[in-house]
Amino acid sequence: MDLLGFGDLLLSGTWVTVKLALTSLAFGLVFGLLGAAAKLSGFWPLRALATLYTTFIRGIPELLLVLTIYFGGSMVLMAIAEQFGYTDYIEISAFAAGVAALSIAFGAYSTEVFRGAIQAIPKGQWESAQALGMTRGKTFFRIILPQVWRLALPGLGNLFQVLLKDTALVSVVGLNDLMRQAYVATGSTKQPFTFYMAAAIIYLGLTVLSTAMTTWMERRADPAARRAAA
Amino acid sequence: MNWNWDVIVEYFPRLIDGVWVTLELIFLSGLFGLMLAVPLALMRASQSRWLRLLPFGYIFFFRGTPLLVQIFLIYYGASQFDAVRESVLWPILREPYWCAIIAFTLNTAAYSAELIRGAIQAIPKGELEAADAFGMSRWLKIRRIVLPRAFGIVLPAYGNELILMLKSSSLASTITLLDITGAARTIIARTYTPLEIFATAGVLYLTIAAIMIGCFRLLEMRLNRHQHYKMPTELSAVDPRLSD
């Protein structure tokens, strides 16, 4: 891939995009699991907090979230640091702001996916684990969580697609991702269509790849389907 | 860090102007998108294999790439070709407003075409066979049975799509439009109060989303009222003669 000598630049941008997507996925999954645990907890303030989190985050644009964290986050951090006597300027990198915004958004959506998956597991399994003398925590990690993975995968796969496409938003605050590098290449070649089209095709390749990965993982996670395929 | 209420009060009218731009964007592109999506969905659900495959590339492209790329492709990309710049379409393609509407329209049409296709395929076969039995022609059947039924089925999913569109409309701010996000960004560039202004913008988005969800609930109740009909338990309530 040469593209008037800008192929390498686009590839380096693609690598940043992939890193951003995977890092946000890792944090987002943690937020999602915590959110689902809070939503299903018996303690009502936790439930209310989780509902507040999912309702607010799902109702505001991801771009607004990225901008708020990038421009507002350093102010909040500086205010906190000031309490501890640190008065220097703190700046949040575009990558960190992107990971924060995208994983918070992913967490809000995946909270619902995880909650649905946990609730889809028959109550009888909780009860039989209890009959075997397992504590609630042990039941969750040994019985419920391994099954949640299988039930949540299709939903999570869709959310990852959305996340992958949303990484482009972080270019707005100056992260050198694929979108940004296409913009840079456009600036010196005056061929916007060529480079945005190249970026679009790379994004398309990434989404196709992630769909294929999800399908493969779904097959792996579901022994019945695996046996049927073999 | 102190929270500055004055800046919110002072610039609130600007943000409200942004609300109108945002609503205009989603209304126009929602309308055009639906007009484009219905024929595409009918093609996707058709019996003919070629007709089914035709919109596939379009839907695949617009669902598989970020909306931001699509907007830039239209707004910046179109100017690369002299043929476009000399054509009668240039006055339209030069305007960020129309570029945003074109990009949103094409994007939402791709997503809603798939939703409508799903709805068309979810219509019980018996209803289509009944229409055939009445001797309805293909178009009459589509007009009177398929589309009205699909519309009722797709409504909840389409409501979600509209909420997603409300959120993606904030991308219009990247090509200089002063929608809610765009207005917020210009205000912040002057006042440097990102937390206050972005939070206000977020509340405005949440309010619009809540109103949209409410409207869709009402519409859904109205369109699918046959599903909520409760049979009177007392037969005498239907007809006094049935009382025993």
Automatic annotation (TrEMBL), chain A:
Stored InterPro entries: AA_ABC_transptr_permease_3TM, ABC_transp_permease_HisMQ, MetI-like, MetI-like_sf
Gene3D superfamilies: MetI-like
Stretches assigned to the ABC transmembrane type-1 domain: 14-214
Keywords associated with the record: Amino-acid transport, Cell inner membrane, Cell membrane, Membrane, Transmembrane, Transmembrane helix, Transport
TM annotation in the entry: 20-42, 63-80, 92-109, 195-217
Name assigned to this protein: ABC transporter permease
Bilayer topology: Multi-pass membrane protein
Family listed: Belongs to the binding-protein-dependent transport system permease family. HisMQ subfamily.
Organism annotation: Marinobacterium alkalitolerans
Location in or out of the cell: Cell inner membrane; Cell membrane
UniProtKB/TrEMBL annotation, chain B:
Superkingdom classification of source: Bacteria
Membrane topology: Multi-pass membrane protein
Pfam families reported for this sequence: BPD_transp_1
Transmembrane segments: 20-42, 54-77, 97-116, 146-166, 197-219
Keywords tagged on the record: Amino-acid transport, Cell inner membrane, Cell membrane, Membrane, Transmembrane, Transmembrane helix, Transport
Subcellular localization(s) per the UniProt record: Cell inner membrane; Cell membrane
Record InterPro entries: AA_ABC_transptr_permease_3TM (IPR010065), ArtM/GltK/GlnP/TcyL/YhdX-like (IPR043429), MetI-like (IPR000515), MetI-like_sf (IPR035906)
Assigned protein family: Belongs to the binding-protein-dependent transport system permease family. HisMQ subfamily.
Annotated protein name in UniProt: Arginine ABC transporter permease protein ArtM
